[in-house]
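Example with several molecule types.
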Amino acid sequence: MKPLSINFVEDPLWRRPVATRWRQILIGLGLATALAAAAVYWQWQVLDRELAETTQAVALARGEIAARTPPPPAPLLLSEPQIVAINSAIDQLNTPWPTVLDGFERVASSHIALLQIEPDHRRRLVKGVAEAKDHQQMLGYIAQLAATAPFAGAMLTRHEVNEKDPNRPLRFIFEARLDGSSALTAPDAEPSVLMK
Amino acid sequence: MSRFPGRDLLLGCTNESAVLLARGTSTPLEVLASADLDPSTHASIEALCGLVAELKSTKTVSIASRSALSVTMDDSAARSFIVTPPGGAQGLAELRATVAARFAALYGESPEEWLLAADWHAAAPFIACALPRRLYREFEDAARANGWRLVCVRPALVQVWNRVCRSIPADGWLIVGFGKTLTLVHTLGAQLASLRTVRLPEAPGVAELVELIEQERLRSPMPGAQRDRQSLLWSGSADWLPETPTMAGLASRTLPLPPLAMTFVHLSEPCQLACQLALAGSPR
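Resulting C-alpha cells for the full complex:
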C-alpha cells in the first residue's frame, strides 16, 4: 500500500506536489516569462539611465559651446533706397573702363575732339561730348563708333555750333550703347571719368 | 547560529496526557515537558487543550528556535473515517465537500469546528481525518510561543500506516494499537474497505482479540477464495499486540514500534503512552 499524505499542517505552496505535467510546463513558462521580463526591464533601466546621462552630457556640451561662441551679429537690415544706392554704386564700379576706353581709342582721329564721356550703367550706355569741324566728320565718327567694340550702337542726341570758339567747331552729344559681354566684366573700375 | 542544531521536537497527545520529547542525532532522547490529567478529571478536548497550553511555558533553553515540531495524536483524540468519492468527482473542492458531508453523517456534528485532512483520491475510497480546530490552534500557539516550526500534526494511525505501508496486506486488516485504543483498517483488493477505532475498557487478551477479529470478519463476509487471502498486520506500541503467526484462522504478523527506553519508567502510564505516540512521529 502507498503512504498516506495526511497532515493537518498544510505545506507551504512551494512544497506542494505538482499534480500534472501541464502544470509543470505552465510553471516553467511562467518562470521563463518572469525572467525574460526581468531581463528586459533591467536592460530598459540601463538604457534609460544611459540616455539620461547622454542627454545631460549633450546639454552640458551645448552650454559650453554657447558660452565660448560670440553672439552672432545682428542682421543688416537695409531700406529699399539704400539697396538701390548700393546696387547703383556696384554697377558703376563694375563699368568696364579699359574696354570702353579702348573702343574710343580705336575710333579717335585728329578731326574729332572727345571732350567728355560719362557712363550710364542703368541704361547700359556711355554718354559722350565731342567736337568736330563739320557735320560730315561728326556723322562719320558716330557711324564708326557704332561699329566698334564694345559698342553695339551709337546715337547722336544733340549738336550745336560752339560760338565761343573762334574756329566755330560743331559740338555734339552722343550715346554709345554697350554690348552685353563687355557690360558684365569690369576688372578695373572707377565710378566715373571726366575728360576734357 | 544555534548551539544545538539537529534536534527535532516530538509531541504525543492522548485524551489524558501530553509529552514533549527532544530528539537529536547525537543527543539522547529527552523529555522536555509532560502533563497529564488528574484521574478525577473527565477527559475531553477542553482538558487536552489545557494540557497543550501548558507546553507554551516549556523551558527550552537547549532547543534552538525554528526547531521542527511533529505532533502525533492518539486515534481516540482525532477522528478517522473512510470516504468514497462520488462518481465523476472533479476537483478538490468537490472532494472536500464530500468529506465534510461524510463527517456530518457519521458523527452528527457540523464540520465547521473540525479541521479536515485526507489522502485525497478522486477514484478510490480514501482515509480522511478530523481534528478539533481549537486543539490545532493550541498546537500553533505553543509552537509560536517557543519559536518552533509546526511541521506535522497526524493521528497515530497515519504515522503507523506510513511506517509499515509496504507490509499492509492488500486483503485483510491493519490493526494499530496504542494504550487502550485500537484502530482497524480493512483492505479489500488493495483498496480501503472500512475503518474503525475502538476504545477498549482494558488491555485485551488474545481471546478478546480473536473475538474482535471474528466480529470484523462477520461485518464484511467474503467468498471462500478471498477469505483465504486475508491476513492481519499488527502494529503500534501497545504491549498487548499478539505475537502469534495465526489468529482467527488468518495469517498474522506483528510489526511493533520500538519500545520505550527504561529512562521513561518514572513517567505516569498516560505519559508513557504519550511518549510512545510521540516516538511514532519521529523519522526512522
